Amino acid sequence: MDTETKTGPKPAAAGASEELTPGARKILDAASALFYERGITAVGVDLIAKEAGTTKKTLYDRFGGKDALITAYLHERDLRWRAWLTSWVDTHAADTRGGEQLLATFDALAEWTRQHNPRGCGFVNAAAELPDPAHPGRRVITEQKRWLHGYLYELSGAAGAADPGRLADELALLHEGAVVLRGLSVVDDPVGTARALAEQALERAAIRPRAPQ
C-alpha cells in the first residue's frame, strides 16, 4: 500500500465553506439538498437557482457551472463525513485500546446514516450518475473512499493488527456494503450486522476490544 493510501489524501480544494459568499452559500446549500434527494442528473441549474432564491447568473458567477457545483457539493459532504467520523471516534473511544476505536467507526456510521443518509451513500449515488472518470466530482468520490480506507488502516495499525492492510480492506468493505444495503432496504440493520462481522474480523486479527486502562 502506498503512503497516500495509508495516511489518506487531502480533500480536493473546491467549494470550501469559508470561501463562499452568502449568495454562493445559499446556492450550495440548495444544490446539496436537491442533488442528494432527487439525484444529480434530475436537477438543473434553474431549479437550484429557484430553491436558493438567486438567479442563474449568480450561480454561474459563483461556481462557473453545474459540474463545479456538483464537485463543491461532494467536497463539502466529504469534509462533513470526515469530521463526523474522526470526532465520534475521538469522543467515544479516545481512551480505549485494542479494537474499540475500529468498532466505534461503525457506531459513527450508524448514527450518520440515521441522520444524514436516508437515501444511501451520497458518494455511491453520485458515482453512478458520473460515469466519466475525468469529471472532477469523481476525484472527490475516489479520494473520500481512499481516505476512509486509510483511516481504518491507521486505526488497525494502532490497535496492533499484524496485517493492518488486510484488516482495513475487510472493514472498508463492511462499511461500504452496509451503507449501500441500508439505502436499498435489503437487510435489516445492515450497519449493526457489519459491526458484528467487524468484531469477528478483529478476532481473526488477534485484536480484542479492551476496557480503558
Estimate the strand proportion: under 5%
Largest sheet: none
What series of H and E elements makes up the topology? HHHHHHHHHH
Radius of gyration, rounded?
19 Å
Instruction: Report the helical percentage.
Output: over 70%
**Structural class of the helix and strand makeup?**
mainly alpha
Low-confidence stretches: 1-17
Number of contiguous helices: 10
Would you count the extended β strands for me? 0
Shape: elongated
End-to-end separation in angstroms reads 32 Å
Polypeptide structure, described:
The chain is mainly α. It has 10 helices and no strands. The chain has helices at residues 3-7, 22-38, 45-52, 56-63, 66-93, 100-116, 122-129, 136-158, 164-184, 190-204. It is elongated. Mean pLDDT is 87; it is low at 1-17.
Record keyword descriptors for this entry:
213 residues; mainly alpha; 0% strand
Give the arrangement of secondary structure elements.
Elements: H1 3-7, H2 22-38, H3 45-52, H4 56-63, H5 66-93, H6 100-116, H7 122-129, H8 136-158, H9 164-184, H10 190-204
Helix pairs in contact: 2-3, 2-5, 5-6, 5-8, 6-9, 6-10, 7-8, 8-9, 9-10
Short description:
Helices cover 70% and strands 0% of the residues. It is mostly helical.
